[in-house]
Design brief:
This protein is α+β, with helices and mostly antiparallel strands. The protein folds into two domains: about 220 residues, Transposase IS200-like (Alpha-Beta Plaits), CATH 3.30.70; about 60 residues. It is about 45% helix and about 10% strand. The chain contains twelve helices and four strands, in the order E-H-E-E-H-E-H-H-H-H-H-H-H-H-H-H. It has a four-stranded antiparallel β-sheet with strand order 2-3-1-4, with helices on both faces. Helix 1 packs antiparallel against helix 2. The radius of gyration is 20 Å and the shape is globular. The N and C termini lie far apart (about 65 Å). The mean pLDDT is about 85.
C-alpha cells in the first residue's frame, strides 16, 4: 500500500525561494512538469511560501523525495539564470514525515500545509492563496478556462520556461499563465478523505497553523516579502542614492533596516529574508542604530 508523506523544506533565513510573482508562476508550472512522471494520485496537496515549501505526497518514500529533489533542481536552474545565484537550493534540507492513516492524521497534515498562508497573515482562508492547492477542493468551478491546446508551442515554452511537448492538451492554464493544480492533484482523493466541505473547514480552522495565527495575530507581518522586496531599490535610492543594500555602509545598512521595520512593520526575521542577511545580522543592524 502506498504511504502518505509530508515533505517540508527548511525555512531559509537569509534569502527567498520566490522574489516576485513570476517566480511563483514558474514554480507552479515546474510542479506540473514533475507531476507528469507520476500517477495523478501522487500529489494530494502543496503550498509555496516565500522561503519554504510543503507537499503532501502519496507513494513510496524514495519517489516522493526524488520528486522534490527534481523540482528543486529544475527551479534552481531557473533561479541561477534569472538572479545569477548558483546552487541556490543545494543545502536547503528536506524533512520527510510519514503520515499514518489513523487518528485523522492525514486530515490534520493537509490542513497544516494549506493553512501556512493564513498563519503568515497573507490571507484569511487557503482558498484565497493562488500558490498552492487551497482553492481546488470542493470547488464546482474547477476545469474551466484556457487549455494547453489553445496556446502555441512557442508561447507555451515562453510561459512555462521549459519544453512543452509532454503536456497533455486538456490541462488547464490560469489567466496568469501557469498550469493549474487541478490538472494533476488528486482532488477526489482529498475530498473523500474530508468527506464534506464543512469537515474540511473544521480541520483548517483547528489546525496548529490556525492556532498559531490566533496566538500571534497582533505581530503578523503587515506586508508580504515580495511587496517589500520590490520596494527596496527605490527606498535605497531615495534614502542613500545607492542601488542596493549591499552597496550601503554599515551605518547606512542599520538605518535601512530601521526604515524597513517602521515603513513595513517588519520584524528582524522578515528583514533578514528581504535583505539577504542572517537573522543575527538583521537583529544586530536594528540594535546598533543610535537615534
Amino acid at each position: 500500500m502506498r504511504k502518505v508523506y509530508l515533505l517540508s523544506t527548511e525555512h531559509l533565513e537569509d534569502s527567498l525561494w520566490f522574489r516576485d510573482i513570476e517566480d511563483f508562476k514558474v514554480a507552479m508550472s515546474y510542479i506540473a512538469f514533475e507531476a507528469l512522471h507520476h500517477p495523478k494520485g501522487f500529489i494530494l496537496a502543496f503550498i509555496l511560501m516565500s522561503n519554504h515549501v510543503h507537499f503532501i505526497l502519496k507513494g513510496r518514500k524514495a519517489e516522493a523525495v526524488a520528486f522534490i529533489n527534481r523540482f528543486k533542481r529544475r527551479y534552481s536552474i531557473y533561479y541561477r539564470r534569472k538572479y545569477g545565484i548558483k546552487e541556490f537550493l543545494r543545502d536547503n534540507e528536506l524533512d520527510v514525515k510519514e503520515i499514518p492513516y489513523n487518528d485523522e492524521a492525514v486530515e490534520r497534515a493537509i490542513a497544516y500545509v494549506l493553512m501556512n498562508c493564513v498563519a503568515a497573515g497573507i490571507c484569511t482562508h487557503p482558498s484565497q492563496y493562488p500558490w498552492g492547492t487551497g482553492g481546488i477542493y470542493f470547488c464546482p468551478e474547477q476545469g474551466k478556462g484556457m487549455r494547453v491546446k489553445d496556446i502555441s508551442g512557442r508561447a507555451l515554452m515562453r510561459l512555462m520556461h521549459t519544453g512543452s511537448k509532454e503536456l497533455p492538451e486538456d490541462w488547464p492554464i490560469s489567466p496568469d499563465g501557469y498550469i493549474l493544480p487541478s490538472a494533476y492533484v488528486d482532488i477526489k482523493a482529498v475530498e473523500s478523505i474530508f468527506r464534506t466541505p464543512q469537515r474540511m473547514n473544521y480541520f483548517l480552522q483547528n489546525s496548529s497553523k490556525a492556532k498559531k495565527r490566533l496566538a500571534v495575530e497582533e505581530n503578523l507581518p503587515a506586508f508580504r516579502d515580495q511587496t517589500i522586496l520590490s520596494a527596496l531599490p527605490d527606498l535605497c535610492m531615495s534614502l542613500f542614492q545607492k542601488k542596493s543594500f549591499q552597496q550601503l555602509t554599515a551605518d547606512e545598512q542599520s538605518e535601512f533596516a530601521r526604515q524597513i521595520r517602521f515603513r513595513f512593520s517588519a520584524d528582524a526575521t522578515q528583514i533578514a529574508r528581504v535583505c539577504g542577511v542572517s537573522y543575527a545580522d538583521a537583529a544586530r543592524l536594528l540594535d546598533s542604530y543610535v537615534s
